[in-house]
Amino acid sequence: MLSCLQTAVYENLVPDMSFYVKMYIKYEVPFFKDYDLTTIHSLCKVMTLRTFNPGEVLLNSGSPAVNMFIILSGEVGVYTD
After folding, report:
1. Per-residue buried b or exposed e for 13-35, using 16+ beta carbons within 10 Å of the residue's own CB
2. Long-range contacts of range 15-18, CB-CB < 8 Å, 24 or more positions apart?
3. Residue 56: Cβ-neighbour burial (10 angstroms; 0-12, 13-18, 19+)
4. What is the rounded distance in angstroms from the CA atom of residue 76 to the CA atom of residue 55?
5. How does pLDDT run across 27-65, given as a tens digit for each residue?
6. For the residues of the chain, what is the DSSP string, one character each?
């Protein structure tokens, strides 16, 4: 089982997200580096925490793109048929 800070994937994010996670998103995720902290905080309010077990499928090829995933740690593989 993956834990939040050990190997977590954020799909959207939780409203009461910790300061650590907000700082991680701001300074370690290149996509968000130019966003100010107020914007990061606003984004975190509409995000939902998701954790995944090893081998669990997050999405399949051809599925509509309705989520954005932020990986705090761990690995995600991409496989094709």
Report:
1. bbeebeeebbebbbeeeeebeee
2. 15/44, 15/45, 15/46, 17/44, 17/47, 17/49
3. exposed
4. 9
5. 888 998 899 988 988 888 888 778 888 888 888 888 888
6. ---TTTS-EEES--TT--HHHHHHHHHH-GGGTTS-HHHHHHHHHT-EEE---TT-----TT------EEESSS-------
- For the chain, the domains span 9-71
Is 44 within 8 Å of 21 (Cβ atoms)?
A: yes
